[in-house]
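To: structure subgroup
Subject: Chain for Friday's discussion

All,

I'm putting the inputs and outputs inline so they're searchable in the archive.
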Amino acid sequence: MRSIWTGAIGFGLVNIPIKLYSATHSSDLDLDMLDKKDLSNIRFKRINEKTGKEVAWENIVKGYKLDDRYVVLTDEDFAKASPEKTKIIEIREFIKEEEIDGIYYETPYYLEPEKSGSKAYSLLRDALHKTGKVGFGSFVLRNKESLCLIKPLDDLLLLSKIRFAAEIVKPEDLNIPKGSPKPAEMKMAIELINRLSGPFDISKYKDTYSGELMKLIKAKAKGRPAPRPAMRVVHSNAKDLLSQLRASLTDQGKRRKAS
């Protein structure tokens, strides 16, 4: 693995030199964009809108439009904006993880200590384990400030980027029902939830869509017709909610007996 950021965790007067690593990778198939006529690869170019000519990467700069003119920013400018935040993950407070709603979570990263920070790293990790708390703070990655949460995950520390409250879109324009369900419907819904409850193991969930798509690709490559699996009907034909719930409970009962 190759680190994508180096800096330090800071809490109180303690400073822990660390490296940041991506904790996830995409399970999407690597599909290319092609010209429908001859299946040639589509290439995207960086074109100067005035001259129509391609611009080399080394000649591209970043700028912000202010009062109808661009102010060009260099890497040094980004660093000067806040030197501390570009190199330090500052823990501002320690909180309970459940205090942050899932809508704020963004991207997870692994934290690895530099040799000189191993002892302090272990201390922070074990202290978080014992207190049941997580560190909450902020840092700058790729010229963008993010809030972050640092929590212990087995023997390592995991950092999750957290969105600012201002980045969450308010659902004010959505048409959300406000009526209450009937008591019988609620009773059956709770029973169905209880039947579908149990010890959670995320490893049993697989990306089956990519696998089925690959089967289709291989079949088409061999000139065979692509398989068309029957679509599973999720909703019953029942007209009212109570009948759908009753049918769901019956279906779950049959599945339990079959297993």
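Points worth raising on Friday:
The domain at 5-32+81-166 is CATH 2.40.290.10 (Ku70; Chain: A; Domain 2).
The two ends are 41 Å apart (CA to CA).

D.
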